[in-house]
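I wish you would study the pair of lines that follows with an eye to the fold:

===
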Amino acid sequence: MTKCIASPLSRQNIRDMAYFIRKIAGQENVLCFDIVHFLDVILPRIDPEFTLIIEEKEELGECHGLTYPDRNEIHIRSDVYERACNGSGRDRLTMAHELFHLLQHERVNISYARVPDNGKVEIFRDPEWQATVFGGELLVPWHLTANMSAEEIAARCKVSIAAANTQIRNR
């Protein structure tokens, strides 16, 4: 198994990208970013060639979501999509994570450098770390949650307590 190395990005770079997406969606001052609506409606309006495909669990197996840059597609497992529609923080984060892969890694940084499993990858060059940070930054807007507890963030931003605590630790 190999690891990929992406172009380096700081948390602040990623936070700025998340704010930009919120601004495009007209949700920069909304606590609960509607990631499902963004992928279902807004992104296809911006990019008519983008497609969100909902697949049955049998088709994707253990994988919750996949991004196919060459086809400009994000595939989400149907149970993940349904839970995201119902406000599940983990599943909303999965959708935001895949959005980042589409926007940043798969289109801008097409050629990854690959290293063997025993090779070290700096965290800020790890594409999975970057996508997860983006998901947290998109779903938990730092500028609106500065004085909130983890419980309040989880409830108002529709994220898990773990995601809320991560965002608090990284303010």
